[in-house]
Amino acid sequence: MDSQAAGRAKGGGDLSGVEHRGTVDRWRAVAPGRVNLIGEHTDYNGLPVLPIAIDRAVRVEFRVTDDPEVRLRSPVARFAPLTFQLKRPIEAAEQGDWSNYVRAAARGLMEHGVELRRGIEGTVSGDVPIASGLSSSSALVVASALALLKANGVGVGSGGASISRLDLAALLARAERFVGLEGGGMDQAACLHGVEGHALRIEFEPLRVTPVAVPDGWRWVVASSLVRAEKSAGAREAYNARARECREAVAGVGGGYRDLVAEPDLDGVVRRARGVLSPVLFRRFRHVVSEGRRVGLAEEAMRNGDMGRFGKLMVQSHESLRDDYEVSTADLDEMVGIALKAGAAGARLTGAGFGGCVVTLCEARTVAPVMDALAARFYAPRLEGSPGRDVMFAVKAGGGAGVG
Ligand code: GLA
């Protein structure tokens, strides 16, 4: 592993096993999930986001094979062993098939001009909850890409490497659209650029990542609404419909989102939009521009150590996602209410919505009361026994993906 990757992977919490695996051709690619702190449904509109890479990851342990074929297994029973040839064209498997994320990585690299003469054989595992808005799928895409690059002797990173992390993030974001979701580039960029103890301001077109230190003494708690939000299935249509509506809305108002958010009189922009858009398009538009503005304010609050203000912006973000963007659910709303009442400084849905998780911002001393309140008031009526470690957990801002 290059030293940069080693530093990143170490930051990824439980990634201490990232090392050369003994025999010459056994390796491990590790790619973290992410939690978006603020800036939801802004990335595909060209506006910034502020996620963290988390200390939970997808791992691909592999051996390099001489033939150009991918053979991967998962210990999860519903993920059948996958095999495909690294030869064009790489066709999609059935919708919802997990192999599509690995295929997307291979396709993206090949389209970028990387020759994949050698394949990989191995096992995929990890502790990023699936279909929870924590980007387990992008982590799988990134881990697969890093494994294929390693197998074919292509270095990643700065300093003479063949492909930069930014270029890899951008090409994998495009490649993941292969699964049919018109996603932005947040997930792949966060996964590849995580920095321990830092949030990541990610800007698009061109892609740029700026780490912002999370002030000491603050914690993030992630809690699942127990409703899966499958990017490759049900949530996909609703997500793509939002992306379409955003394009129509900005065409109706005129100009681009970035310029509109930068206008000093944002209320004036919103008034203008109300005059020309249908009620639905107006609500989508208002979410995007107000969320775009909130990301800048939240970053400033974090830099100033004003996490009380950061928390308030998270709550505004949730309300906007609920009322204007209409991607929340009654359960997510209820969880946000419970967390705030129990003393969280902020709480909101994270990821695309339609189920998935909430993220709450807590001072160290409020972590336990917030988790206790969610356990008693949200989970107790819905689960037998207490919520497991895939249902509710504290996360740390961790390091980015690596292979070694
Ligand atoms: C999904 C997409 C991201 C982003 C979020 C919503 O996670 O993959 O690109 O659009 O939804 O913010």
Secondary-structure topology with pairs:
Elements: H1 3-11, E1 26-38, E2 50-65, E3 69-73, E4 82-85, H2 99-111, E5 119-126, H3 136-151, H4 165-176, H5 186-193, E6 198-203, E7 208-213, E8 218-224, H6 234-253, H7 257-262, H8 266-276, H9 279-303, H10 307-323, H11 330-341, E9 346-350, E10 357-363, H12 367-379, E11 392-395, E12 402-403
Parallel strand pairs: 3-5
Antiparallel strand pairs: 1-2, 1-12, 2-5, 3-4, 6-7, 8-10, 8-11, 9-10
Helix pairs in contact: 2-3, 2-4, 3-4, 3-5, 4-5, 6-9, 8-9, 9-10, 11-12
Question: Brief overview, please?
Answer:
Strand 9 and strand 10 form a beta hairpin. The chain has twelve helices and twelve strands.
Q: Mind explaining what this structure looks like?
A:
The longest helix is centred in the last third of the chain and has 25 residues, at 279-303. This protein is of the alpha+beta class. It folds into two domains: 3-213 and 399-403, Ribosomal Protein S5, domain 2, CATH 3.30.230; 218-395, GHMP kinase, C-terminal domain (Alpha-Beta Plaits). A hairpin with a 6-residue loop joins strand 9 (346-350) and strand 10. Helices cover 40% and strands 21% of the residues. Mean pLDDT is 92; it is low at 1-23. The protein is globular. It contains twelve helices and twelve strands. Helix 2 (99-111) crosses helix 3, helix 3 (136-151) packs across helix 5 (186-193) and helix 4 packs antiparallel against helix 5 (186-193). Strands 4-3-5-2-1-12 form a six-stranded mixed sheet. Strands 9-10-8-11 form a four-stranded antiparallel sheet. It has a two-stranded antiparallel ribbon with strand order 6-7. Alpha-D-galactopyranose is lined by residues 36, 40-41, 43-44, 183-184, 186-187, 351-352. Residues 36, 40-41, 43-44, 183-184, 186-187, 351-352 line the site of alpha-D-galactopyranose.
